Amino acid sequence: MEQAAVAAVTERLILGTGVTLLIQRDVINTAKEVATLDLISAGRFVFGVGAGWNREEMADHGTDPRTRGALLDEQLDAIRKDLDRGSRRYHGRFIDFDPMYAWPKPVQRPHPPIYLGGGQAAAERAIRNGVGSLPAAMSDPAAIPAQLSALHGNDLPVTVAFVATDPALIDGYAEAGAQRSLFGLPTLPASETLRALDDIAKPAGHHLG
């Protein structure tokens, strides 16, 4: 709902999830939500997903933590086909449905960009699925090339989350092949939020030009 509200009052802001715990959601409903957000934002939605780490929470949603990786792989396959076709069916180990129609369709084709958030296992899953990677930032610029080397070698898009407002880190990720760096914005009173935005804007503005 928040993203829909933001989409309605902005024109250039990219909207994204970071990250949607897809293994705890219905894949058909989620595909419809993704398509709707992309439609009302005129193609500005980026779909960040992850397998999650909270085993108790997964179990509460009916997901077996032991098979969450295999489930996520299948969901990613199903949701991409769901977004790309006028009518579809899917028969897998975890996901099973007969032909049906689903609307709306996203503006971005074949579907909005998908990014997998997490650590090394998520990076390997991104490579296997041919989707983007959303790793968490490191605090040591010297360690950045090794962190992104496998992803860069596979020519996958990379967005790095939780980057500190440190020019050395921002430069390091850009030089290592990351297309985008994301900065955290904690929930604070209005005056403190504005100051935090100013702190983010200084290095961001410098690197934009």
Low-pLDDT segments: none
**What share of residues is helical?**
40-55%
Gap from first CA to last CA:
33 Å
What integer is the average pLDDT? 89
The string of secondary-structure elements, in order, is HEEHEHHEEEHEHEHEH
Structural class: alpha/beta
Mind summarizing the main beta sheet? Answer: 5 strands, parallel
% residues in beta strands:
15-25%
Number of strands: 9
| Gross geometry | globular
Radius of gyration: 18 Å
Quickly count the helices.
Answer: 8
Overview of the structural elements:
This protein is an alpha/beta fold and 209 residues long. Helices cover 44% and strands 15% of the residues. It has helices at residues 2-9, 27-40, 55-60, 68-84, 120-129, 144-153, 167-175, 190-208; strands at 15-16, 20-21, 45-50, 87-91, 96-101, 114-117, 132-134, 159-160, 180-181. The strands form three sheets. Strands 1, 2, 3, 6 and 7 form a five-stranded parallel beta sheet that branches. A two-stranded antiparallel ribbon has the order 4-5. A hairpin with a 4-residue loop joins strand 4 and strand 5 (96-101). It is globular and about 50 Å long. The relative contact order is 0.11. The model has no long low-confidence stretch (mean pLDDT 89).
